[in-house]
Design brief:
Distance between the termini: 41 Å
Largest sheet: 7 strands, antiparallel
Mean pLDDT: 85
Number of strands: 9
Strand order of the largest sheet: 3-4-5-6-9-8-7
Helix content: 25-40%
Shape: globular
Strand content: 15-25%
Structural class: alpha+beta
Order of helices and strands: HEEHEHHHEEEHEEEH
Low-confidence stretches: 18-23
Number of domains: 1
Length: about 210
């Protein structure tokens, strides 16, 4: 119980950190001082790194365009089967940043355009079954304290939904006979998501664009 309390207090302190000059936007626009609508300097302050998206793809195949769009905009995307070429074209000019947060226990990845962050994704650094469930539970509780009760709570997905910003906490599962599912936190700029969606469908033959 003491260990759980210490984790909860540490998480609350880290999550409550605000970037300098941050306005009174909903709590779910920021995580560990990195905020949607904020500068990529927020990530660099955590000893992170930023790369143009094509360079990130060349260095790590996991950063293919479909994966980048998914981690940045997540459940807000209206389509999940857009043409890869159209997604790649729509992401031209974007930057991917990455840093470790929460004392190295999580990785934050961001998508930015013109040095402004439009999407944030947080995942744990390792799938450790020993303390993974406890850490995820403590993080979920800390988010609810910092961001308030989810506007759309669900057993496997907490959602904070606003007209301009959205945030999601994917609740992990730890089945005994399978590899544990990791938690995932996604923070979205809805306007940027919709603008990306319109770029994806700007060319003939790519279907109709929808709002995020």
């Amino acid at each position: 119980m003491i260990a759980r309390a210490r984790i909860a207090l540490a998480l609350t302190a880290l999550l409550a950190g605000r970037a300098p000059g941050q306005t009174r936007a909903p709590g779910w626009t920021a995580f560990a001082g990195i905020r949607v609508g904020g500068p990529t300097d927020d990530v660099l302050a955590h000893d992170g790194e930023c790369r143009p998206i094509q360079e990130a793809v060349d260095l790590d195949p996991r950063f293919h365009p479909e994966a980048v769009a998914s981690f940045a905009f997540g459940f807000s995307l209206p389509h999940s089967n857009d043409p890869p070429q159209a997604i790649a074209a729509a992401l031209s000019g974007f930057t991917v940043c990455r840093a470790r947060v929460l004392e190295g226990r999580a990785v934050v990845m961001t998508l930015a355009r013109d040095r402004i962050i439009v999407g944030i994704n947080v995942i744990p650094t390792a799938q450790d079954t020993a303390g993974g469930a406890q850490f995820a539970d403590s993080l979920r509780a800390a988010l609810r304290r910092e961001w308030g009760r989810p506007t759309a709570p669900a057993p496997t997905l907490d959602s904070w939904l606003g007209s301009r910003y959205r945030a999601y906490f994917l609740v992990p599962r730890f089945p005994r006979d399978r590899e544990p599912q990791r938690f995932q936190i996604i923070l979205v700029d809805v306007a940027a998501c919709t603008a990306f969606e319109r770029r994806v469908h700007a060319r003939p033959g790519t279907g109709a664009a929808e709002d995020c």
